[in-house]
Amino acid sequence: MRDYILLYINGREHRVSGEKVFAPVTDYLRYDLGLCGTKVVCAEGDCGACTVMLGRLHGEDLDYKPINSCIQYVFQLDCSHLITVEGLKHNAQLNPVQEAMVECHGAQCGYCTPGFVVAMCSMFDDGKPKTACQIKDGLTGNLCRCTGYEAIVKAGLEVDLSQWEPIAKRYPAGGFVKAFKSHLKESVSITWDGKQLFVPADVKAACEFKARNPETVIVTGGTDVAVNMNKRGLVPDFVMATSNLAGLSDIVTRKDGERTVLEIGGRVTLKALEDFVSDLSEEMKYVMWVFGSPQIRYAGTLAGNIANASPIADTPPMLFTMDAEIEATGVNGVRKIKMTDFYLGYKKLALQSDELITKIHLPLPMSDEIVRLYKVSRRQHLDISAFTAAIRLKVTRGKIETAAITYGGVAAVVMRLPKVEQFLVGKEFSLETCREAGKIARSEVAPISDVRGSRDYRLALAENIFSKFYHETAERELVCQ
Ligand SMILES: Cc1cc2nc3c(=O)[nH]c(=O)nc-3n(C[C@H](O)[C@H](O)[C@H](O)COP(=O)(O)OP(=O)(O)OC[C@H]3O[C@@H](n4cnc5c(N)ncnc54)[C@H](O)[C@@H]3O)c2cc1C
Ligand code: FES
Ligand code: FES
């Protein structure tokens, strides 16, 4: 058992133990190491000022991704290499991204600038030029209050890539890989001031720790837990970081009859899922693309989104409607739980105290099914939904054969709408049917008013989303018949 976190920052080794392990990464960088280029504005993942690149073992290499360091804790970083804005210089000179930002006047007060620079460096590390659209897309997680985005996007368009030195060349992977591989064999246990951290080396050790300490807070991407720690006073006595459970990071496909099913590991990030489904399902790709920002999607996971159990989380409606299943592993082995049985009440899960989510089985839509996923929020990116819906119909010769309907944001938990489903089966697929289904849906839900929307607004959405669904899909249906 190890009693320290092994972490490299800008190529230098750090062995961290005691109090500092329980600190946000930004505190450690700024106050312990004097790396003040990484800024903190919101401390909740919304602005990108704290963006750093995090490299984790991937085969014989390190895979670097941009993340928000304000919502990562040092205990999550065992066996990783962190690159801050200070570590991106080219031989003590500005790198091509920084040069372009200067030339194009991409900074005024400069507070947001390191975050933009790190996010852009990570975008350009593949050595390929980007369109304005791609640059904007890569920067949805970075806010600037004074320069305006035009100059920043222009800088992105003018980066001189002939001068770009890839991260892997600047920081050769060999040394890290050897150190990480030997350290990953051991679990980490650190106790300080009544708090205990456990970083298990395998799932068995994770379940045993959780069985002994049922109140353990699991941290995977940390994009929910760290916000609760930074802003809502969460101070867990027992924390377990899943970062070293390497076997949970894969997505594989299998067949269930004609249907393709994805098996998504419990540590698979939202970005990895977005990339995987991009050729398989336009709807799923879209709903993953509007999820948070790149920094959130590179850290956050599907398992975390499910276990966080928010009624307005973006992925559960798709999982409910596609009849997904959760694979939970505990000390007595593995069992499957239907997604529709997973929430027992507000933030109450059907998991035993020793269990964690190790896999999600997600059936994909068949070519003869119409599936639409809706996220209604005040802006397209980096916003929490007011209302979500997932509608799946199989229509044969104009008649609805099967229906699976799920809404989020209309009750304490995400819910299927059995009355609407029953009504739809056997009906003609028409605007009239969809309008009637909307009315039934309205009567089947009981939303509350909160900052994201009033009760009346949500009731109106519950009803009208069906007409939208019809208008969006009927044309395709007619062509297919
Ligand atoms: C700026 C910002 C934007 C966001 N945007 C969106 C958005 O657009 N849509 C949306 O739905 N959410 C959004 N979120 C919320 C969050 O990013 C997601 O819920 C994310 O999927 C959480 O994943 P994670 O791995 O970071 O979870 P964590 O924070 O690590 O954990 C979340 C919960 O799941 C539990 N948990 C984690 N892993 C497991 C496991 N393997 N087994 C059992 N329990 C586990 C944890 O104990 C915790 O209760 C946003 C958050 C932020 C900060
Ligand atoms: S400080 Fe705003 S995202 Fe980290
Ligand atoms: S330059 Fe001031 S916030 Fe962006």
How does the SSE layout of this entry go?
Elements (H helix, E strand, L loop, with lengths): L4 E5 L2 E5 L8 H8 L18 E8 L2 E8 L11 E4 L12 H8 L9 H12 L7 H7 L10 H9 L9 H4 L3 H10 L4 E5 L2 E5 L3 H10 L4 E3 L5 H7 L6 E4 L9 E6 L2 E7 L4 H8 L4 H8 L4 H6 L2 H7 L7 H6 L3 E6 L2 E6 L4 E3 L2 E2 L6 E8 L5 E8 L10 E10 L2 E10 L6 E2 L1 H7 L6 H14 L10 H26 L1
Parallel strand pairs: 1-5, 7-9, 8-9
Antiparallel strand pairs: 1-2, 3-4, 3-5, 6-7, 10-11, 11-16, 12-13, 12-16, 14-15, 17-18, 18-19, 19-20
Commentary on this structure:
There is one protein chain. This protein has 481 residues and is an alpha+beta fold. The protein folds into four domains: 5-86 and 170-241, Roll (Ubiquitin-like (UB roll)); 91-164, Orthogonal Bundle (DNA polymerase, domain 1); 247-363, Uridine Diphospho-n-acetylenolpyruvylglucosamine Reductase, domain 3 (2-Layer Sandwich), CATH 3.30.465; 386-480, CO dehydrogenase flavoprotein, C-terminal domain (Enolase-like, domain 1). Helix content is 33%, strand content 24%. The chain contains 17 helices and 20 strands. The protein has helices spanning 25-32, 96-103, 113-124, 132-138, 149-157, 167-170, 174-183, 203-212, 225-231, 270-277, 282-289, 294-299, 302-308, 316-321, 418-424, 431-444, 455-480; strands spanning 5-9, 12-16, 51-58, 61-68, 80-83, 188-192, 195-199, 217-219, 238-241, 251-256, 259-265, 325-330, 333-338, 343-345, 348-349, 356-363, 369-376, 387-396, 399-408, 415-416. The strands form five sheets. The protein has a five-stranded mixed β-sheet with strand order 2-1-5-3-4. Strands 10-11-16-12-13 form a five-stranded antiparallel β-sheet. Strands 6-7-9-8 form a four-stranded mixed β-sheet, covered by helices on one side. The longest helix is centred in the C-terminal third of the chain and has 26 residues, at 455-480. The radius of gyration is 23 Å and the shape is globular. The mean pLDDT is 95. The structure holds flavin-adenine dinucleotide and FE2/S2 (inorganic) cluster (2 copies). One FE2/S2 (inorganic) cluster (FES) binds next to loops. One FE2/S2 (inorganic) cluster (FES) is lined by residues 40-43, 45-50, 68, 70.
